[in-house]
Amino acid sequence: MRLKISLPFVFLLWLVTNLAYAAVEVTDDSGQLVHLAKPAQRIISLSPHLTENLFATGAGDLIVGTVEYSDYPAAAKQIPLIGGYNQLDIEGILALEPDLILAWHSGNPLAQVERLAGLGIPVYYSEPRSLAGVSHELRQLGRLTGREATAEQAAQAFDAGAEKLKKRYAQQREVRVFYQVWEQPLITLNGEHLISEGLSLCGGVNVFADLKQLVPVISREAVLEQDPEVIMGGGIKEGEGEKDPAWLIHWQKFTAMQAVKANKLYFIPPSLVQRPTPRFLEGTQIMCDKLQQARNH
Amino acid sequence: MPFKLLPRLLVLFCLSLLILVLGLLLGSVNLPLEAIVSVLSGQGAPLHKMLILELRLPRVLAAFATGGLLAVAGALMQVLLRNPLADPYILGLSGGAAVAALLTMLAGLGVFWVSSAAFTGALLSTFLVFGLAYGSGQSSATRLLLTGVVVASGWGALISFILATSQAQQLPGMLYWLMGDLSHAPNPLIPWVVLLVVLCLLIPLGRTLNVLARGALQAAALGVSVQKVELLIFGLAALLTAIAVTLAGSIGFVGLIVPHLMRMLFGYDQRILLPASALAGGSLLVLADTLARIIIAPQQLPVGVITAMLGVPVFLLLLYRSNR
Question: Where is the secretion signal located (chain A) (predicted)?
């Protein structure tokens, strides 16, 4: 039998494949234009937060390689590793034949990423620093992978969740908060940090919002001088529970502070707030609950 | 005893006291002198009390002890190795402490464990170097120096390995430890006691040290049992350094430069050089730590950054003037 291929059919086929694999152009967080001939099919994610966001947009199955500590959701743990976020295995990445690399601008070694870009692999730099940045990233990832619909859903759910929290706590009394990121050295964050934005959503005021550095090392004296109403922070170790984390014990002896006197020291699970992903809202919800607890105390 | 140098030593002592008071006065919150007086006499506002008694006094005392320990240890190492480039860390002691401390940080353990590990690591490294250098019986300063330097490079490689493979959020803590940081120094009582006891022990030995500094052969010819004295010096220097490292991480520069500085001002007699080094080392570190606390307050710098910035110009100036 002779296979008949009509011209209109060929045209239709061409049209269909081109619609499905339309060229993609998005601007990344470093301001560079990322151009893909077709939506990405083999993605390398160079940061745990990017892996998490890809899964949130329903494109987790496209990741062929990622970095250590990509531990959420559980399926992410099955993805082959290509090094740590700060130490990339260039050969391992090339061997996976990716058609898109998602890089973390402030975390990855730029020289190594630039090298990969120089080899012709498209690189998208991510640096979400705000709540709006998270939903923006979800939408961008949707465009890059051709999964716009699920990504849009995820982004809208995130925006709606943030809006809900904002509405609920907008009328509440403001609470002055010291947020402790790390114990030794003593590290906090300024007003431009995502966590600080989450705090203000709950009606919390970061006492060190005006510092210039994003995550500054500060003196204990400065905290005493600010005398915040609430002290919040994560544990030193992942999975360390609310049960007397080390940083909490350190504050106990400063009994003249109002936060210590009224025992308003709260533990925030670091895994929920340290990544700019949809899970950040869960962490924000916990911060809001603690602040409410402090108000009612 | 060179009594004519005692007035100079007295001036240094008064200067040290002044710097200690300065360290109490300055910080992210500036206190008036009356506040300190009233707190020290048992009164004062709760905030001032907390600032001075809980934070500044322990920290200033810890800084002074650390500086003093390092400077004396450095002076001893320079006598022991008869090498002007010797410092307390040259035999790999801080490297051993650092590896142990970073490993406990990697495991996520608290401040107490980090300090204990640092002390253990320092002693372990000391025994390792000692065993390798003296194990075969005969030894010399050169052999000890070489062993120490090579062991130190080994520790250095391990430190780089730990830094390269650890998580991002743990890095600031590790780097601060490596640069030297006094914000979590434990109770300074033991370091002070050790410093004073060791000084009291060494000053009567001063003549022997003076002879030894001129060379092992001359010392032996003059009837010094070189091996024994060297062992004692090595052990004491290691103990002093281990305690300093436990207090504040590896603070560089003080142990190398302060003894040289004091030699320019006080000459070569160890009986006056050692106490002078203790005072000057302590003062330098208190001054550096105070600056580290206030330069970009409320933000903090690691004290190690400031020590060198203060010490280098002073040292170069003195070196330049002593040459003319």
Answer: 1-22
Between the alpha carbon of residue A26 and those of residues A91, A121, A142, the distances in Å are 27, 15, 11
Beta pairing partners, A66: A45, A81
Distance CA B273, CA B267 (A): 7
Rounded-to-integer distance, Cα B116 and Cα B172, Å: 20
Q: In this complex, is the C-beta atom of A85 within 8 Å of any C-beta atom belonging to chain B?
A: yes
Any chain B CB within 8 A of the CB of A206? no
Are B108 and A237 inside 8 Å of each other by CB? yes
**CA-to-CA distance for A253 and B180, rounded, in angstroms?**
25
Between B170 and B102, name the one with better pLDDT: B102
Residue B232 vs residues B89, B123, B197, B238, B285: alpha-carbon distances, Å: 17, 15, 14, 10, 26
User: Which one of B110, B167, B181 has the shortest CB-CB distance to A246?
Assistant: B110
Chain B: closest CA distance from residue A254 (Å): 7
What CATH number has the domain spanning A17-158?
3.40.50.1980
**Does B167 contact A69 at a Cβ distance shorter than 8 Å?**
yes
Q: Look at residue A291 and give its three-state secondary structure.
A: helix
CB atoms inside a 10 Å sphere around CB A220:
22
A138 pLDDT more than 60: yes
Can you tell me the distance from the alpha carbon of B31 to that of A247, in angstroms, rounded to the nearest whole number? Answer: 27
Inter-chain touch B111–A240, beta carbons under 8 Å: no
| Bridge-based pairing state of the strands A63-66 and A123-126 | unpaired
Q: Which two tokens stand for residue B19?
A: 């710097």
Q: What is the pLDDT of residue A55?
A: 96
Average pLDDT score over residue span B42-51: 79
Q: Which CA distances in Å does A273 have to A163, A202, B122, B296?
A: 17, 14, 37, 28
Class of the domain covering A172-296: alpha beta
The size of chain A, in residues, is 297
The residue extents of the domains of chain B are: 3-323
Closest CA–CA distance from residue A98 to any residue of chain B (Å): 25
CA atoms within 13 A on the CB side of B188: 27
Report the mean per-residue pLDDT for chain B. Answer: 86
The alpha-carbon gap from A66 to the nearest alpha carbon of chain B, in Å, equals 15
Lowest mean pLDDT across A179-183, B241-245, B311-315: B311-315
Q: How far is CA A226 from CA A174, A191, A257, B151, B181, in A?
A: 15, 15, 9, 46, 23
- Tell me whether domains A17-158 and A172-296 share a fold: yes
Q: Which of A117, A149, A154, A113 is nearest to A137 (CA)?
A: A154
| pLDDT score at A1 | 46
Angle at B105 between CA B101 and CA B111, to 5 degrees: 80
Chain B nearest CA to A142, separation (Å): 28
Contact assessment for residue A36 and residue A99, using Cβ atoms and an 8 Å cutoff: yes
Record: contact A218-B55, CB cut-off 8 A: no
